[in-house]
Amino acid sequence: MRLSVRLLAASALALTLVAAPAMAQDAATIGRAETIRDAALNQNIALDYITQLTTRFGPRPAGSKAEQDASAWAADYMRAQGFQNVRIEQFPLVGWERGEESGSIVGARPQRLVLAALGHSPGTNGVIEAEVVRFDSLEALNAAPAGSLAGKIAYVDAGQMVRMQDGSGYGPLTRIRGAGPAAAAAKGAVAFIMRSVGSDEHRMPHTGTTRYVDGVVPLPGFALAAPDADTVSRLIAMGETVRLRLSSTAHTYQTVSQNVIGDIPGRSRPDEIIVLGSHMDSWDLGTGAIDDGAGGAITLAAAKAIRDSGRRPARTVRVVLYGSEEVAQPTDTGNGGGAYLRGIGTAVEQHILAGESDFGADRVYALQLPPGAQGSEFARAAARVLYPIGVLASSTPELSGGADIGPLAASGVPVFGLNQDGTRYFDLHHTADDTLDKIDPAQLSQNVAAWAGLIWLVADSDVDFRAMRTAAEAASAGR
């Protein structure tokens, strides 16, 4: 009986805690969010921004002059759109230049291969020519006997990426790109190659960063375009001994990257900050339209729509165009996201919510709120605003955000996700095909509308996602 009383008391307390921070969204706030949403559907700022960014500056590798120049231009663009407190936050970076690269099958029946060096891989210091040993997984490579790949090229072909709306097929393969070169070096290999991490079958390789181990990337690594990977794998399956000739003049250099920050200051609680994040840098093969010029266009235009609504929100809306999201570093300092966190210091406690747009420009289909917000009055208000433009509420909470806002999430800032349709994203991701023409203006505007409507609800309210999370944790502990 005593235990039942305690459980009932705990349950009552938990229900009170859960309900307390979920402040009602009044009809006027919801109505204004709907008006801002509809206006954002007809804006042209997002398309203007992404058109100018990709056309004026092209690819923007982390730490490059193009990234630096694009950041200076974006700061001026923000000022022209009415953002305040616009500033550039600089931090040191090890940059990487691709240089010239080539690959071919050599022997009696030579064939040219289409490939791309993996980001931050060292050059080949001339030409590497060696026999290929194929593995069908990273685990198989790790299980190879010590020294068994001495003087050879390790090749991992784990098959084509599974096409998924939420992009979940990416993770199982991208870890090969990150860890593969070090695993190959540990077995004595002289180079590493892999099937590109992409959902397409185009003869267009997908690049991407690899990892540093003890301050270095241990050997040259390359991604083969999908058809070329298939060719190498078929030859090996036919019993052929495949020898490749690889060359790369890739190299690293000391440079700086930067975050671009601009605010729509809150009218009554300006110290309470909502961060809308994306990244400025891109890979060098395309022009970084979907990854991630689009994210900057979406978040900047959403904040602009709120500013233009005729009433400033109570809280500050901050747009951050982060630098150097794409690349690994010898020492993990979090790149742009880490630099931002270090720059704000104890003000992180006044950051009440953060979100990141870094999955292209196709439509938003789901909203993930921080833990504890599911089923709250705020969630119901958000659903009312977003459902008419095709965005459904998810029962799964958002926990970590993306690479740029990850440091904020790790420091306790609640994060949300406006999940985009990624069905075709990994056809284009990190390739020469990541260009402006791949952006659908109508879907781009739907993203802006979703961000603008949602952020208004947060910014002009006293909803406390930290308290919601604490209440949900207390409720769970009391069960």
Automatic annotation (TrEMBL):
Pfam name, any one: Peptidase_M28
Keyword vocabulary terms for this entry: Aminopeptidase, Carboxypeptidase, Endoplasmic reticulum, Glycoprotein, Golgi apparatus, Hydrolase, Lysosome, Metal-binding, Metalloprotease, Protease, Secreted, Signal, Zinc, Zymogen
Signal peptide start-end: 1-24
Keyword Magnesium appears in the UniProt entry: no
Cellular location(s): Endoplasmic reticulum; Golgi apparatus; Lysosome; Secreted
Single annotated GO MF: aminopeptidase activity
The keyword Glycoprotein belongs to this UniProt entry's keyword annotation: yes
InterPro entries xrefs: CPQ, Peptidase_M28
Domain Peptidase M28, chain residue ranges per copy: 259-452
Subunit structure: Homodimer. The monomeric form is inactive while the homodimer is active.
Protein's recorded name: Carboxypeptidase Q
